[in-house]
Amino acid sequence: MPVTDNKLSLSQVENDRRILELLAQTFPTIGSASTEIINLEAILNLPKGTEHFVADLHGEHEAFRHLLKNASGNIKRKVTELFGTSMRESQIRQLCALIYYPEEKLQSIHDTEANMEDFFNITLHHLVRVLQSVTSKYTRSKVRKALPVEFAYIIEELLHESASDYDKQAYFNRIIETIISTGQADKFIMAMCNVIQRLSIDQLHILGDVFDRGPGAHHIMDTLSRYVKWDIQWGNHDILWMGAAAGNDCCVANVVRVSLRYGNLGTLEDGYGINLLPLATFAMETYADDDCTDFRSHASEEDNTHSEKTLRLVAKMHKAITVIQFKLEGQMIENHPEWKMDNRRLLHKIDYEKGLVDIDGKVYEMSDKLFPTIDPDDPYRLTTEELHLVHKLHKSFTSSTVLRRHIDLLLSHGCMYGIFNSNLLFHASMPLNEDGTLKEVCVGGEYCKGRRLMERIGLLLRSAYNDDTPESEQVLARDYYWYMWCGPDSPLFDKDRMTTFERYFIKDSEARKEEKGWYYKLRDNEEVIDMILDEFGVEGGQRHIINGHVPVRTGSGESPLRAGGKLMVIDGGFAKAYHKTTGIAGYTLIYHSSNFELVEHEPFTSVEDAIANGTDIVGSTKMVEQTARRVRVRDTDMGRVLQSQIDELTELLYAFRHGIIKERKR
Description:
Blueprint: H1 10-15, H2 17-26, H3 30-44, E1 51-54, H4 61-70, H5 74-83, H6 89-100, H7 102-112, H8 116-134, H9 140-146, H10 152-159, H11 166-181, H12 185-200, E2 203-206, H13 217-225, E3 230-233, H14 236-246, H15 249-261, H16 266-272, H17 277-286, H18 308-335, E4 350-351, E5 356-359, E6 362-365, H19 384-398, H20 401-413, E7 414-415, E8 417-420, E9 423-426, E10 441-443, E11 446-448, H21 450-463, H22 471-486, H23 500-505, H24 518-522, H25 526-535, E12 544-547, E13 561-562, E14 567-569, H26 579-582, E15 587-591, E16 595-601, H27 607-613, E17 618-626, H28 637-657
């Protein structure tokens, strides 16, 4: 409850005196403290900022960049609201394309437009109106901080243009005329467009899996490094790369294998400077007589950029690292019997002469029987050549400065879960028992569940990167990254097994089945979802869990809303590999001050197409929940922080007025 002056007492203020003395250094007078209270109270009554939730980007950097530029269709909606009755649809698309890609679009317009002065005049007036709409829910201070220094004063003046203020119309018109006559129109338009983009999304939430499958995870991370307000809840693919960068060789092998599986070498080689030449040399020598048919890249059917010879080499590299991975994982499992994953050690279950493998008492015929590097008497031992190769890959990952910089971003902006404005965010799952209760999981010798489980895992994983952590704990932390990737009780996996071996070597689909944990089976139960929300202390009349990880088969009629709308699963398949599964190309969940909207995205064609034709990636938008009333800043997490600041300032006023603390005249 807000503190008012008449509810304060001398004893309470005396108890808080040390804090108030510090606060008085910033607000030394009654006037300055009162002014700040007035300012904060005004902010509390503004509508909350727009939050965007996305999940499972999987390296699709062009689609992601476009999503940020168009604010998941929010900018086009505002432009349509403003000009829908005065502009044709084609003109609206072209204006939006200019806002999304101002530099490229202006270059195209210069090549085709006969009267640039007229274009500049009309466009600048349009952009002013769009920016006025975008900034309407923000304070002048917040808008000012987002403005480029070079044009800040002029943009501020234009933002306060009013069609009804006839006395100032000549003033505003003259500003625009002067921008054009001084040759600054191009730069000014680019500045305006960038501010519109920046302020159209107040907070960006990423529910994991920036990495793997798509070609540009490093570009996404570079984009995020320049973004202002964002957070990430780590996904299983992010954890895999974090483990590889920390020096976990099982994670290194998996990262390389997945990249080869999807024909995605650009991120490894160009993005992070990972040297794959030793692997290529080893694969050519070791698998020279093996066509490695089952290891052809998933992208090879559509690949017209690489020769058949290159694709064959990639297949050999793919098989080579896969065999090494199974050896390394067998050693890891043997070192950690507490993980109870011995059923994933399969190399010693193979009859190499007959090409058969025994899995859980059932014998399967293997589709590939050529294993030149495996010693049947000691199948998990790496050959001398494999040891050298693993050492080189290890060094390449751990010494990549760009990868380390991006991992530092994941550590500084991310964690296992997040709570934002009555929404609990985590990537995949919450380990549960069959009866729907929270399951206890052993993490580094401590049994924990629910919120404590997520926090304990987060602390352990971070310790792999803390130089002051004891070596024994660092080793456990590095090992645990791999468990988080595929361990049965991992909140990022939560299945009985990862059947990677079976997918490569056994045609029988029964062998490839993975039994999901109880969270996936019980997540339609509102009581279970409420129990999890209670465990994390999430309050509010309209509270939710928001997940990614499991692609929603939208094309087959599957809904992203579960448990009466209390759970929202927003993996719509950004990665091209999932488009056939989901029927769309990704979701954005948007939390406005008045409702939740779910935006379905169409496949992104190209930046060139967006610039030339104004194409977009927004397929359809539907409201999934209407808030009971318009949400103000005071109703948000930030509102509670601001209210506590008001309470402290109110105490300071009391202390000034009662002589407990003396005013300090400036």
